[in-house]
Specification:
Oligomer: single chain
Strand content: 5-15%
Helix content: 25-40%
Strand order of the largest sheet: 3-4-5
Shape: elongated
Number of helices: 12
Length: 322
């Protein structure tokens, strides 16, 4: 009927008018910059983009994207060392996984060689030792690749956790277009010597990345009970790692004689069950660092290991260790 046709046309015209007004309002909002505020509130992307492809340029040479997910986010971690687990409302909550300190005083000394100068670090290690439970080591079943994995990507080009630590601990570290560290100078905490690092098939091994509390030691003192996410986090956590002389790292091995046979007695360090670096100026720092790591991560010590740790750190704090 004619009346129905008029009604239909009126509805169509009304809808088109509404769409036109909405479009005009959107254009005005974008032009005024108001869209950026709205996008921040509702979570929809900005009207501008930083993801444009630069023709003919290697992506690894582009400026780093501040929104790129880090290794901790990729592993489901919040960056402070805590495992982030999703809540039912879609936000994130923090688990009870121990927090890590990525700005440890003992780490920043690696590039300068300024060891053995902060009794507060030793006292903190001694205090941490008092919180550590004692237990027999539980060997058997250890498989590094299976349970801890290799170095994880650090979110920049082809770089891994190894490059992150090299960049932190080497003085004058130089990176290539893939974010990999290619050269730098290490004041080695384990030997006290200066090492010129050059990336290469036959040269990279001169500087290795040591787990101060070795993965085997961690496995035998509690990590075997962790889930895989936490083990991978530990293996790639900056607070656990230290750039060091390659041969010294290899000689260290697991770093602990868990059987209590005093295999490191010849070092005359006062801790015959615990490996100590040849650089005596770093021994107090080293003992404090491994104690802090074990405390933070809820790892145990053998009775002899704990007694020796307390003995050494007490002497360090009192200024009597040499």
């Amino acid at each position: 009927m004619k009346g129905d046709d008029n009604h239909g046309w009126r509805g169509l015209v009304s809808m088109l008018a509404t769409l036109l007004l909405a479009s005009i309002a959107m254009v005005a909002l974008v032009s005024s910059g108001g869209w950026n505020i709205v996008s921040d509130v509702i979570g929809i992307g900005s009207h501008t983009t930083t993801d444009k492809v630069v023709q003919g340029q290697d992506k690894s040479q582009l400026p780093d994207n501040p929104d790129r997910k880090s290794i901790w986010e990729l592993l489901g971690l919040d960056g402070s060392g805590s495992v982030a687990a999703p809540k039912t409302d879609g936000t994130m909550k923090t688990d009870t996984t121990p927090k890590t300190d990525t700005t440890s005083k003992t780490d920043t000394k690696a590039a300068t060689g300024s060891w053995g100068s902060d009794p507060a670090v030793w006292q903190a290690g001694l205090d941490a030792t008092n919180t550590i439970k004692t237990a027999k080591a539980r060997p058997g079943g250890y498989d590094r690749e299976r349970y801890f994995g290799g170095w994880a990507s650090n979110g920049c080009g082809s770089a891994t956790t190894r490059d992150t630590i090299l960049a932190r601990d080497l003085k004058g570290a130089v990176k290539n277009s893939k974010c990999q560290v290619t050269s730098g100078t290490l004041s080695d905490p384990y030997t006290g010597q200066t090492i010129q690092f050059r990336r290469g098939r036959n040269t990279s091994s001169a500087v290795q990345i040591d787990h101060v509390v070795a993965l085997l030691d961690a496995w035998e003192s509690g990590a075997r009970d962790w889930d895989q996410t936490k083990r991978v986090q530990y293996a790639n956590s900056p607070d656990v790692l230290l750039a060091s002389d390659g041969p010294a790292n290899m000689a260290k091995g697991s770093g602990l004689d868990a059987n209590g046979t005093a295999s490191y007695r010849s070092q005359n360090s006062g801790a015959p069950d615990v490996w100590m670096p040849d650089n005596k100026a770093y021994r107090c720092d080293y003992m404090a660092k491994r104690a802090t790591i074990k405390s933070k991560w809820g790892l145990t010590m053998t009775p002899r290991e704990k007694q020796q740790t307390v003995s050494v750190l007490s002497q360090c704090v009192a200024g009597n260790y040499n």
